[in-house]
Design a protein that fits this description.
heterodimer, A: 235 residues, mainly alpha, MetI-like fold, globular, B: 347 residues, alpha+beta, Rossmann fold, 2 domains, six-stranded mixed sheet, 9 helices, 19 strands, elongated
């Protein structure tokens, strides 16, 4: 017990802040992009639908290290796009917090996209037609009818996205590295201290992660509960 | 999915039009084309003075701008919105205007006290009233009713039909009802169009279409049970081949008919001596319903097929005569009830 207290006293808490910030940023980005993508795909013609859907879902199926490999190819400062970003805007993705966000977003995005799409597909098409015959613009129909009706699906998509973004390890370690106080997320810190045989520190972080996971699910369920009340009962 | 061609040309001045047809006949598709939910390959759709769709001139007005109210089969009420919000969703103008309009509709359609309910908390009748109120609040120029009663229990249906007709009584615009029920079409509309396999099989004043359907398809859809091929012999006689008889009329027969129809209610039972236009028959089977008996009879001859079987409906008030006298010896065709038909569509 004492060693835990000792470790706690001099523990570097920065991975907690980095993970939470990364997870939050990736979730917000995925939330909007995922819904937008799901909406666009719904309006797509059949042929393109399959191709685009495959591309958007790919990061979920691939091992994160493979996604990390492609991200490195794209953003490396030794390659065209990376050089362009750095020279023109001074943006550095590799070995930076931005890299953490990009890696987490790419990996977590498909969860948001797929959940949003599944939720939209369950919305009765007649509701959309009804909205149109009542003079509502497509945007209004989406905002006032489709989104609320799909609410529970969107909420669960957001939970999963946040959880996935928070725990991202493979792609993040390749793209952003494990720089203490900068890109070292909780997952990376756990992996690192385990390699040093420091099970006490690892245990503390594991405990923290479990706490966060519970808190997130609890909060989201409260939100979903509200949305769920608006859905007809299955009786 | 198989391909399906819908080829419909019609115009109506009537305020109340029904489109009657079997499922898959293209009647719903016609309605969806008017609303702009589906886009026809070619053609023109006009409402009043407005062109809604004209393929030749590349005109295709958005559904939102067509001023068309659409009553969906399941009402398509927005599940996450209260009754009040549902009704107000299509009303344009300031908040005050909208609230006033919504209140008016809630009063008119007897939805007081249900303003904050969600659609899932309403009965079927209340849902229908909410859906009509929502359309009325929007004040469209045309109202389209897409089989509004087909999902209802039979005992509710009659009441809801009556109610809907009552709710629409003050509406000045055109109402088009799509249905597969002849009763619904008959009670609802001045004008009727019968659609069969994507084509118009008959159209005109509702009562005329029922009394003179004109085509075999229309006769069947309008409920005519007995149809035979026919061959004109002279001005007053023709052979009804499947019924195995030659029928005579006092009036001059129309020139161009190749089939004849006879409604199952119109047979006259004859006992004893054979009169004109009588056929002998053998009873094949029968069914007793609440208010009528259905007899399925076949011509008295060696070879016959299923299509040759005649249907004879006897209403309840005639039952005593039958039980007293037994089965008649002959069934008589009355010339005023003969329907002279064309096989195939009119178009």
């Amino acid at each position: 017990m004492n060693d835990i207290l000792v470790v706690l006293q001099k523990l570097d808490w920065s991975p907690l802040a980095i993970s939470l910030k990364t997870g939050a940023a990736a979730t917000v980005i995925s939330f909007f992009l995922g819904i937008l993508a799901a909406r666009r795909i719904m309006y797509c013609k059949t042929g393109w639908k399959a191709v685009l859907d495959g591309i958007l879902t790919l990061p979920m199926v691939l091992p994160p290290t493979v996604a990390g490999f492609f991200l490195l190819l794209l953003f490396s400062k030794r390659r065209l796009f990376g050089i362009f970003l750095y020279d023109t805007f001074g943006i550095k993705v590799v070995q930076s917090w931005l890299g953490c966000i990009i890696a987490a977003t790419v990996i977590a995005f498909p969860l948001m996209y797929r959940n949003a799409r599944a939720a939209f597909e369950l919305v009765d098409i007649d509701l959309i037609h009804a909205g149109r015959t009542l003079g509502m613009s497509d945007f209004r129909i989406f905002r006032e009818i489709v989104l609320p009706t799909a609410g529970p699906g969107i909420v669960s998509g957001t939970i999963l996205t946040f959880a996935r973004a928070l725990g991202e390890f493979g792609a993040t370690s390749m793209l952003a590295g494990n720089i203490p106080g900068k890109t070292a997320t909780i997952s990376q810190r756990i992996a690192m201290v385990i390699q040093d045989g420091d099970y006490v520190t690892a245990g503390i972080w594991v405990f923290v992660v479990i706490l966060i996971a519970f808190a997130v699910i609890f909060l989201m369920n409260i939100a979903a509960g509200k949305a769920l009340k608006k859905i007809p009962d299955w009786r | 999915m198989g391909s399906f061609t819908l080829d419909i040309h019609f115009r109506t001045e009537a305020k109340r039009l029904s489109i009657l047809g079997a499922s898959g006949s293209g009647k719903s598709m016609t309605l969806k084309s008017i609303a702009g939910i589906v886009t026809p390959d070619e053609g023109v759709i006009r409402a009043g003075g407005r062109v809604l769709y004209d393929s030749a001139h590349g005109i295709n007005v958005r559904t939102q701008d067509r001023s068309v109210g659409y009553l969906f089969q399941n009402y398509a009420l927005f599940p996450t919105m209260s009754v009040e919000k549902n009704i107000g969703i299509g009303v344009r103008g300031s908040r005050a205007v909208r609230n006033e309009r919504v209140r008016e509709m809630i009063r008119r359609f007897h939805l007081e006290g249900l303003e904050d309910r969600l659609p899932s908390q309403l009965s079927g009748g209340q849902q229908q009233r909410t859906a009509i109120a929502r359309i009325m609040a929007y004040s469209p120029e045309i109202i389209l009713l897409d089989e509004p009663f087909s999902a209802l229990d039979i005992y509710l249906k009659d009441q809801m039909q009556q109610e809907l007709q009552y709710q629409l009584r003050d509406y000045e615009g055109t109402v088009i009802l799509v249905t597969h029920s002849r009763d619904e079409a008959y009670r609802f509309s001045e004008d009727l169009m019968i659609v069969d396999e994507g084509r118009i099989a008959a159209q005109g004043k509702t009562k005329d279409v029922f009394s003179k359907p004109g085509t075999v398809a229309a006769a069947k859809i309008s409920g005519c049970k007995n149809i035979s091929t026919a061959r004109r012999i002279d001005d007053h006689t023709f052979a009804a081949e499947q019924w195995g008889t030659t029928l005579r009329t006092s009036f001059i027969l129309p020139q161009d008919f190749n089939a004849v129809g006879y409604r199952a209610h119109e047979f006259l039972p004859v006992w004893g001596e054979r009169r004109e236009n009588c056929i002998p028959f053998l009873l094949e089977s029968s069914a007793e319903l609440q208010f009528e008996k259905n007899y399925y009879v076949r011509p008295d001859r060696e070879s016959y097929t299923r299509e040759d079987i005649l249907t004879w409906f006897v209403q309840r008030d005639k039952w005593p005569v039958l039980s007293e006298k037994g089965m008649p010896d002959y069934l008589q065709f009355q010339e005023k009830d003969l329907l002279f038909l064309q096989a195939g569509s009119k178009a």
